[in-house]
Each structure stands twice: as structure tokens, then as C-alpha cells.
């Protein structure tokens, strides 16, 4: 795909997103660090909270990358030589996505039980209620079905499942009616159905980011943008393109909280992240070594996402004692990364990875 979004770029974007997620979960509200002496020099607490709120777009970046990657696979699947049924396509991706999540569900519930005297009253009063609630969480559906989760950050599992199921439908709309039509439908339907903004944990709120990723894949937007030279001048035009895109990224950061989400959430959850992704791909990832480092984090992003809030909450006394604001998310990231390496080793040497690959190939 030339200058399109390669696998290494997708991994680097996931690396950026997981950095943003850890920071977001540390400082998105003042309550997160209330009672601790945190040094924000040379910034203010308000500056850091604004930055953390902006970093909510980490979810949009994950949705965009998912849309791009799923559409790439779906387009390959349209080739008769690679053809499998849409149901098999969905099953494979669901199984692959959920398998990494399942590996940590049982340990998470065991740790929760040890810390709470094996009382699972959070999920109900009767054995049936508790079992149903825990199984719903284990399937990644707790947020969608409105039940409790052992980890609040795991709500995105429901979004990931929803996205995978919707890709064949959205893919057909893009192929038969065009990308702009699909974007227009996703924009109009919530307003025509009068459902509005569904909040920061609903898959519907991030559906536009998914669709934009799918359309970018179909239209090879990154390669087209790379080859675009304003005014036909390689140097002056290239400099103008850089300045314009950088200015749009900064404007996106400054304006993130200006528009109410209820008015046009696609601005915060699709347009702003897309401009940032374009800038990262076109310029930042060209910095020697940076894409490889971010890609390394990206390869561990699933595990880091699943464990980082446990690290934050279980080690909070130690973490907040570090005092300087940047050290807290950095420590959480490093501890989570070490845990991720251990988790991947366990998956490999217990035969879990091999079993998942074998089962996944059976979906035809």
C-alpha cells in the first residue's frame, strides 16, 4: 500500500494511544489525585487535567486502527482466493480479540476475591445474579448489558465486539454506496432516531472513528495525503502542508472542550483524532527509532490496557508518593509493561496461544 498505514504504523498508533490512556486515567479529574501532594511544575493542575481530558481520544485512535485493520482484512476477504463467509470473518476476529481478554479474567476475579474476602456481592445477592453478572463481564458485555465489571476500564471490550460485528455491514455500505455515504449515514442516524450522544463509554459514540478508519483504508487516504504537494512545490508546499496540519492538531487540542459533546461529538471523537493520526503518520513516525519504540508499546497495548488500572489502584500509595506528576503514569506504564511481558510468556509456554490459533483456524 506504499505510504498507506502499515502494520508498524498501526502498532505505533496503539503505542501512542496506550500512553494517552494511562495518563487519562491518572489525571482526568482532580479526585484521582486528591489527598496527595503532586508537583505539576512547570504546569498547573488545570493544564494537566485539560491534557488528560483531551487524551480521551485514545479510545478513538483504537477505534480508528480497528476500523482500518478490519477493513483491510474485509477487502482481502472479497478476493475469491481468500474468501470466507462474513460469519466466519466475524467469528475469527471476535475469538482472536476476546482470547487475550479471557486469559486475564479468571486471575482478575481471583485477585478481587482475595482482596474482598471472596465476597462477590457487587454482582448481586443471589448465586444466580452473581454468576450471571460475572459471566457477562467475562464475555466482555458488562457495559452493553448494564452489569458490573471487575475493572471499569474494561468497558471498551463491548465496543470492540460491537465494531467487529458491524464491519461486514459497514463494509458493504462503503463498497456499494461509497465512503462518504457511510460517513453521512453514521452522522445522521443518531439524530434522525433522536438518540443523541450516548456518553463516553458507548460504542455508538466512537462509531464514526471506526468508519473513518475503514474509509481511509478503502480510499488509501494516507498514501494520497503523502503524495499531495500544495502548489506543486516540494519544499514550499511541503512546509505549508506541515504548518497547516500542525496548526490543526494544536487547534484540536485547544478546542476539544469548546463544543458540547451533545451537539457534535464526532468533532471530538472523530475529526480531532483523525487529524492527529494523519500528523503522526506523516511526520512524527519518521523520527528515527520512535516508531519502533511506540510499536513495541503498541504490541503490548492489550495487556497494558487490561492491567494498568489494577496497578494504579493496588499500588496507589507507592505511585502517588513519587510526587512529580509525570512519574506516576510512567511508573504505571513500566510496571504494566513488565506484567505484559510475563503474561505473553505464560500464554506461550502454557500452550494458550497455540490453542487459540488452532481454534481460530477452524472458523470457515
Entry summary:
By secondary structure, the protein is mainly α.
Describe this structure in words.
Helix 3 (58-77) crosses helix 7 (156-177). The protein is an all-alpha fold. The model has no long low-confidence stretch (mean pLDDT 92). It has helices at residues 7-27, 45-54, 58-77, 86-115, 127-138, 142-145, 156-177, 179-192, 207-219, 221-227, 236-255, 261-282, 290-299, 301-314, 316-320, 327-349, 352-361. 71% of the residues lie in helices and 0% in strands. 35% of the residues are buried.
Key traits:
71% helix, mainly alpha, single chain, globular, 364 residues
How many strands, which pairing sense, and closed or not: the largest β-sheet?
A: none
The averaged pLDDT comes out at 92
Oligomer: single chain
Helicity, as a percent range: over 70%
- Net shape: globular
Q: Secondary-structure element sequence?
A: HHHHHHHHHHHHHHHHH
C-alpha-based Rg, rounded: 21 Å
Record field, number of beta strands: 0
Tally of helical segments: 17
Please indicate the percent range of residues in DSSP E strands (runs of 2 or more): under 5%
Distance between the termini: 27 Å
The low-confidence runs, each spanning 5 or more residues with pLDDT under 50, are none
The SS-based structural class is: mainly alpha
